[in-house]
Inverse folding.
């Protein structure tokens, strides 16, 4: 019987390195394509989860927690402040409503009763001459309030204008006006060395010829309001009156008048 011949692995060619099975696996692994891009979930055992930040992040964690605490305290303070302002506004509104219902305040009424003029002889007046007019003015103040009095303090001012030119000025006397009272107070307004422009002088002479001279009186008076036994702080009363007279003499007669009233509380 003939002997069987088994083939043997051919010997390595001289100079070619031999590779073991483990090395072959490593080569296959290194040459494998990279995994596709995507999101991966990494599971960590519970015993390896840190509930206390590691030392390198401890300072950052402390800063974050303190910042959060400060933010919460600031929000609380802001909420308290807004709540206080709202409550105060509601209380003031209630107090104002009660005050109105109890006292029923009314604004005083002002009017000009008489105007007498001196020192305005326009027949002998040239464009370069100066005038020194004097106005005697009676102002009527009507306080129609039942339980409110008015103290007129010192420091008032009354001015008389023609157009934008101030002719004279003066002041009101200081006095107290009780409730439900009408007071007519007299004031003397004086001007010295007033020079009118040519256009103002021409317009004024034409107005006198037409027997319709428009003037403007501006009154500013500091007052204190008395409610019961309580007096308020100083309030500035502002009265602007447009008054038209027929002539600029002591016998001047008021043709038309209209007064507006305002208040500066502070």
């Amino acid at each position: 019987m003939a002997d069987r011949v088994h083939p043997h692995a051919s010997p390595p060619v001289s100079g070619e390195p031999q590779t073991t099975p483990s090395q072959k696996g490593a080569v296959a692994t290194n040459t494998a394509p990279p995994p596709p891009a995507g999101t991966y979930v990494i599971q960590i055992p519970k015993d390896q989860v840190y509930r206390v930040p590691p030392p390198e992040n401890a300072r950052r964690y402390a800063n974050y927690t303190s910042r959060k605490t400060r933010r919460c305290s600031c929000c609380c303070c802001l909420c308290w402040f807004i709540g206080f302002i709202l409550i105060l506004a509601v209380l003031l509104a209630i107090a104002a409503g009660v005050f109105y219902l109890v006292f029923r305040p009314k604004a005083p009424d002002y009017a000009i009763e008489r105007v007498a003029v001196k020192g305005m002889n326009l027949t002998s007046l040239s464009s370069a001459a100066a005038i020194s007019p004097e106005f005697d003015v009676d102002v009527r103040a009507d306080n129609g309030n039942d339980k409110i009095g008015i103290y007129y303090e010192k420091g008032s001012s009354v001015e008389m204008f023609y157009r934008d030119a101030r002719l004279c000025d003066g002041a009101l006397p200081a006095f107290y006006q009780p409730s439900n009272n009408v007071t007519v107070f007299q004031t003397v307004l004086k001007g010295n060395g007033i020079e009118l422009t040519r256009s103002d002088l021409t317009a004024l002479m034409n107005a006198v010829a037409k027997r319709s001279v428009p003037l403007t009186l501006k009154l500013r008076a500091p007052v204190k309001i008395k409610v019961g036994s309580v007096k308020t702080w100083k309030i500035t009363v502002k009265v602007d009156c447009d008054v038209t007279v027929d002539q600029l003499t002591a016998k001047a007669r008021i043709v038309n008048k209209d007064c507006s009233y305002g208040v500066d509380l502070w």
Q: What stands out?
A: The two ends are 137 Å apart (CA to CA). Residues 55-103 form the longest helix (49 residues). Helices lie at 21-30, 55-103, 198-209.
